[in-house]
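Hi Q.,

Before the meeting this afternoon, I wanted you to have the 2-acetamido-2-deoxy-beta-D-glucopyranose prediction in hand. No need to reply - just skim if you have a minute. The sequence and ligand are here:
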Amino acid sequence: MAFSRSSMLAVAATTLAIGASASLEVCTNDSTFSCQSSSTTATCCFNYPGGALLQTQFWDTDPSTGPSDSWTIHGLWPDNCDGTYQSSCDSTRAYTNISDILTAQGRTDLLTYMQEYWVDIDGDDESFWAHEWGKHGTCINTIEPSCYTSYTAQEEVGDYFEKVVDLFKGLDTYTALSNAGITPDSSKTYTLSEIQAALTSLHDGASVYLGCSSGSLNQVWYFFNVAGNAIDGEYQAVDTLTTSGCPSTGIKYVPK
Ligand SMILES: *[C@@H]1O[C@H](CO)[C@@H](O)[C@H](O)[C@H]1NC(C)=O
Ligand SMILES: *[C@@H]1O[C@H](CO)[C@@H](O)[C@H](O)[C@H]1NC(C)=O
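Predicted structure with the ligand bound:
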């Protein structure tokens, strides 16, 4: 009895998770990787013009945000395969009620995770999430409402936040650095090449963008090309399109 009850719960949970993007158009397995084709036609299975998708992260120390042993989420940004990007692509979908949308979609575990790992430096998470969605999320052409076969209100918003969190969970910057002996320290400094090597290794051999503020490491961007749509498609790590903004030596990694 107990066994069948928990099986039913497991089945229900699985259905809910799959249901999240079940109505997004299915892309064939031979979809071309974005930024790697001469095609200039945006379709529901080809990210264009924003063909590079960047999972961006922060290491905030002034003030500190998030767990002391984890980087935090900045967002998922489409880039035009060349370091330039579109922004704020659809004001009619620039929602400011992200928490309500996720709650109405039953994505409360996602929301709880975001409250810990996708936090605003000024403590205004709701505005930060709305900003990321409105500025960047609305520019991802493969998740426009017209790409869904039985679209429900704001479905693409929940799909976007869930995808960003999934990507972030696979890009544990803190642990990758720590495994390379690069740990937060109030006096020690590191070189750009040793930090780059540790994160390139995490990112399937592709270089990353590193950002610094006053000589202290505070940002990393992981670049991907995608075959298919931004939710169900295949993500391939690619080299950074943007030159790192850190000095080559003497980089601080300040404890939170
Ligand atoms: C996609 O195609 C490749 C090569 O033909 C195959 O190995 C892979 O299993 C396919 N993936 C899916 C999800 O069908
Ligand atoms: C979120 O805001 C939009 C736009 O104002 C509205 O249409 C939608 O019903 C709201 N969603 C929830 C769950 O409150």
